[in-house]
Specification:
alpha/beta, Aminopeptidase, 4-stranded antiparallel beta sheet, 7 helices, binds zinc ion
Length: about 280
């Protein structure tokens, strides 16, 4: 179940650090100062934002990104090294439900184990948003990605629709890259600067999935995906069809292939995702 839109639980903005900077995945975003005339026309012509690296600023400074990063989640600089893996739903949120007590929230946790193994075999560090049957908020899950530098985000779902045995990859639909009247990027638009990268990543993973799971589309699709909207990283949703199978083992047998396809797609994406080291560069 993917298109589960909920009210945004946090309506604020990326927290401020000083008067003109926002910490953004370990980088400082220096936002262009608006003139008074730009401010008056801000809805028509939003100001541009630029990212400025500040090596003196520790990554994941408490209170800045919303959640402290794990020690394993830090990078030493360089390219993509971390995959934040999100088994969707959990706790009282069961997700899609099928016959025989099948619950999406449980199946995605098992899938996450396979995906994690495949990614680690390719040398990636994996940060999982939940390990058991709990239900972190959308914002908590996004914050785990937003606290990293050089990460991608993958949320895993099982659908209640679609041809059983196929897999679809989604990216968030277009988000206006707005800034607020002070020039800051709203929390619920965090994905906007990363959408082009997310599409590229999604198409690469979808291509790998299509080779393995016949009937899957060749290219990624767009949708309104709440979990992706607040994520400041290349971010995709992977949705496996479906909980309508008669036997859960039909789904379980797909997990290793899904993991392998995501890992291969992530390797392919790594070469094209250059994390800017230069101040002032957008992703
Ligand atoms: Zn779901």
């Amino acid at each position: 179940m993917l298109l589960d839109v909920r009210n945004i639980e946090r309506s604020g903005f990326f927290p401020l650090l000083g008067s003109t900077f926002v910490l953004f995945a370990g980088a400082m975003i220096a936002l262009a100062t608006q003139t008074s005339s730009q401010t008056q026309q801000s809805s028509a012509s939003p100001p541009t934002a630029a990212i400025q690296t500040n090596p003196s600023t520790p990554i994941g400074q408490p209170g800045v990104t919303g959640a402290p990063p794990t020690a394993a989640g830090r990078t030493q600089g360089g390219g993509l090294t971390i995959v934040v893996l999100d088994p969707a739903h959990g706790g009282t949120d069961l997700g899609a439900r099928g016959g025989g007590g099948m619950r999406e929230s449980e199946i995605v946790l098992d899938f996450a184990g396979e995906v994690r193994r495949a990614l680690e075999q390719q040398g990636f560090q994996v940060v999982q948003t939940r390990q058991g049957n709990d239900n972190p908020s959308f914002d908590d899950r996004s914050a785990m990605a937003n606290a990293q530098r050089g990460a991608v985000f993958v949320t895993l779902h099982i659908s209640s629709t679609g041809l059983p045995g196929t897999v679809r990859v989604y990216v968030n639909s277009d988000l206006p890259a707005v800034t607020d009247t002070n020039g800051f990027i709203p929390w619920d638009r965090a994905q906007a600067p990363f959408l082009a990268l997310s599409r590229k990543y999604a198409d690469l993973v979808q291509g790998m999935l299509a080779q393995r799971f016949k009937g899957s589309p060749d290219a990624a699709q767009t949708g309104t995906v709440r979990q992706l909207r607040t994520t400041a990283a290349p971010a995709i949703a992977v949705e496996v069809s479906s909980v309508t199978v008669n036997d859960r083992s039909d789904l379980d047998h797909m997990a290793a292939g899904v993991g392998d396809a995501i890992a291969r797609g992530t390797v392919a994406f790594k070469s094209s995702y250059v994390i800017p080291n230069m101040p002032g560069a957008l992703p």
